[in-house]
Structures are given as C-alpha cells and as structure tokens.
Amino acid sequence: MLAAVLGASLAGCSSTGGKRAEDERAAKAAGGRAAVDTPRWTFAMVTHSGAGDSFWDIVQNGAKQAAAKDNIKFVYANDEEAARQSQLVQSYIDAKVDGLIVTLAKPDAMKDVVAKAEKAGIPVVTVNSGSAESKAFGALSHIGQDETVAGEAVGEELNRRGRKKALCVLHEQGNVGHEQRCDGAKKSFKGEMQKLYVEGTNMPDVQSSIESKLQADSAIDSVITLGAPFAPTAVKAKEQAGSKAEIDTFDLNAQVAAGLQDGSLGFAVDQQPYLQGYQAVDLLWLYKYNSDVLGGGKPVLTGPQVITKKDAAALQEYTKRGTR
C-alpha cells in the first residue's frame, strides 16, 4: 500500500510519467539504488535484541530494503540491557541523526531518552514492543502486533487443537510484550496455562528448564515459546523428557518453517518482522518528505497471523532469503 501511495505521489514529478516512470523506480529499488531524489537522511534503529536472535536479522533486512529505495543511510545498534539500549539511543541523538526507530520492551528505561529525541527535533517511530506507551512517549507511530491480541490468538488455536494444559516459556524477564503474550493466551485458553521463566541467552539452560518441567508434569500437552530460535530447543527438551507435548511458537524463521512441515512444531504466530523494519524506515521517510503519519494514534498492525503445516511450504522460500 505504501509503495502504491509513494508511486502515485511521485509520478507527477517525473519527466517520463505514468507506468514507465513507475517501472524505472521499481528497477532502481530492486538494484539497490534509490528510487527517489530526496536528501540522504540518516535513520538509526536501536533494539533490545540480544546476540544471535535471527528475528532481528529479518527486521533489519526489511529496514535495509526500504532504506535503499528511499536514499537513506541506515544504521543499527542493539543491547538487551535496557539502560545500555537507552545510552545507544542517546548516542544517536548526540550524532544528530534524522530519524530514530526504537523498541520499548522495557518502556520505563526508554521514556526519558525518547523525550530527549523529540526535544531535539528527531522524529521517532517505535517498533515491535511498547505499543501501549508509544503515543504517550511522543512517537509518530508504532509498528508491530498487539501482543495481547497475539496471545489471545494462541489461546484460541490451542482450544481448536483440544489442548488442556500449556506452558508459556518467557526468555526475557521484564519484557512487557512477553508478559502480554502469555497473559493474552491465558485469557482465551480454556485450559490451564503456566509460565516458565528461563535465561534466554543460555540455550542449554532453556532446554534443561523446559525438560525438567515436562518431566515433572506429564499433563502438559503444549509448550509455547515466545521466539523462533527457542522452538527447536523446546523440541529437544520434549524429546529428552519423553513428553508428547506439542511445541508451538511465536515468530517464524527457516527452522520453524521446516519444523511445521515435518510436524515437530504445531503452529507459529507470525508478526512479519520484515514488514516492521520496512515500514518503520518508510514511515520516517514519508514524514520527512511529506509530513505523513500513519495510524491516527493507533498501532500499525503487522500481525498476528497463525501459520500451520499447510502454510509452511509456501513460506519456506521467503524464510530462506531472510524476509519471513
């Protein structure tokens, strides 16, 4: 939709006009060249990602593609510790970037620095986490999924599958989005829902914690992980525990798509991270170029979409190239 709006808005400025101009812009974007002649602004993205989380690689892939199209210099930094994430944002404010994209996984730690960006005249778009706080903090828009609604979708899917007792595995303590996912699932799930907190930066610990829980309670018939990298680890824990529980997950990557196909995973809830990165850059460009703002104060939703075995084959091509 954004591409269509952009194409229409710029067609009148082209000397060639019409479909020919549109095709030329598309060809430039596909070749990694800018499709516009606006100034080369710098946009920085700062997330709460830990090391090695493939989800954020997909977000960056979307952001980089939009940046190439929009003649943007895109820079990225991350830290899972909230105070250090805030410091990274401050460093980009000091560098006088033209736009900021930030996550609000731990909103209290980010509130002041987002206000500083606004005071410095730097527009901010929030992505992925913090939809409830985004507008109050002064951001232009929030792009992501409503985590409570996504959790409710999980509970409803578990009901359809006849599940009775589920384990929701939280891999980052203090992340409000993760709590909202589990709480949303508990709200809509007709069975019993338990939470299990694990240290997400230590996969052996994640596996042993899930394994111990499954060994101690054979009634658990479903395990929900909150990120794609944790799903294969939960599968290993299930196998070691001799459990028959179904493993389900939030988010999608190549391993998850393969797991859905071979039946080792039941379903995944996709929030389309590529779209989060792409739209964040595009919305900042639109704001800088034309003072456009999407959402009307409401989040711009990219999910949730429940993915099952029947969907996995069609998506594998995209997961392998890092866009789903």
List the helices and strands and how they pair.
Layout: H1 2-11, H2 18-30, E1 42-47, H3 54-69, E2 73-78, H4 82-94, E3 99-102, H5 107-119, E4 124-127, H6 131-137, E5 142-144, H7 147-160, E6 165-170, H8 176-188, E7 192-197, H9 203-216, E8 222-225, H10 231-241, E9 246-250, H11 254-262, E10 268-270, H12 273-290, E11 300-301, E12 305-307, H13 309-320
Parallel strand pairs: 1-2, 1-3, 3-4, 4-5, 5-11, 6-7, 6-8, 8-9, 9-10
Antiparallel strand pairs: 10-12
Helix pairs in contact: 3-12, 4-5, 7-8, 9-10, 11-13
Offer a concise description of the structure.
The chain is an alpha/beta fold and 324 residues long. Helices cover 50% and strands 16% of the residues.
